[in-house]
Amino acid sequence: MAEQRRNGGGATAGTAAERTARVRNPRGQGERLREEILRAAGGLLEQVGSEDALSLRAVAREVGIATPSIYRHFSDKTDLVWAVLAEHYERLAGIMAEADASAPADDPLERLRSQLTAYCRFAVANPAKYRLMCETWQTPVDEERLHGHPAGLLLRGLSRALTACEEGGWRVRGTREEAPYMLWYALHGRLALWQVMPRRKDTVRLDRFVDELLRLMLER
Predict the structure, then answer these.
(1) DNA-binding residues per UniProt (predicted)?
(2) Do residues 67 and 116 lie in contact, with contact meaning Cβ atoms separated by under 8 Å?
């Protein structure tokens, strides 16, 4: 709220400053400006914690551009926020894919275990990024648009890993369509408690949780 109040007054002077503070990128460097907008929005999101509290005017001021210039790269604030989150989801998905590839190719359960362990390690090693991904309050959208959320990258990867387990002779307990979500929800809940509870931060506890989670969700 304080950030919003700081951005509320002096619209005319602020707009003029936005228009003159930044040297225009040479022709063909629009991608560079897009990256600058993403970095600025990401830093502000870490501070305010929600899409509603994020001010596009504040983003523009950070970059040194006029606020309308943001709309040349992002259709609306939701599009901008999802693009910020997508960078981190893509990185996490890549780390999980590497963990999958490092496990024995003929052991789909171990490959899934490696992915879940990699997820936990990412969250522990990158607490600010992880909070941004999983704790940023986002504006509700319709179901059609929701399908494009960057978290879908993570969920599709988990679904493929579960399919490989099924093809390897494992049965998924519960509703198959909900299984990737259940894996994600369980991991996030355990990580949230692990991070805030007053216990020694031993990642072995997370490894044991992954093992127990797989025992609960999969059977021969």
Answers:
(1) 55-74
(2) no
CA distances from 136 to 8, 18, 64, 104 (A): 22, 27, 25, 36
Instruction: List C-alpha distances in Å: 193 to 89, 103, 206.
Output: 21, 28, 11
Amino acid at 197: M
pLDDT of 204 over the 80 cut: yes
Tell me how far CA of residue 70 lies from CA of 3, 38, 138, in angstroms. 19, 10, 19
Structure tokens at 85: 């989150």
What's the distance, Cα to Cα, between the start and end of the chain in Å?
A: 53
Place of tokens 């040479």: 26
pLDDT tens digit string along 55-83?
A: 999 999 999 999 999 999 999 999 999 99
Tokens representing 209 are 């949780």
Q: Check whether 44 has a pLDDT greater than 90.
A: yes
Q: Hey, what are 1's tokens?
A: 């709220």
**C-alpha to C-alpha distance for 54 and 59, rounded to whole angstroms:** 8
Reduced to 3 states (helix: H, G, I; strand: E, B; else coil), residue 171 is strand
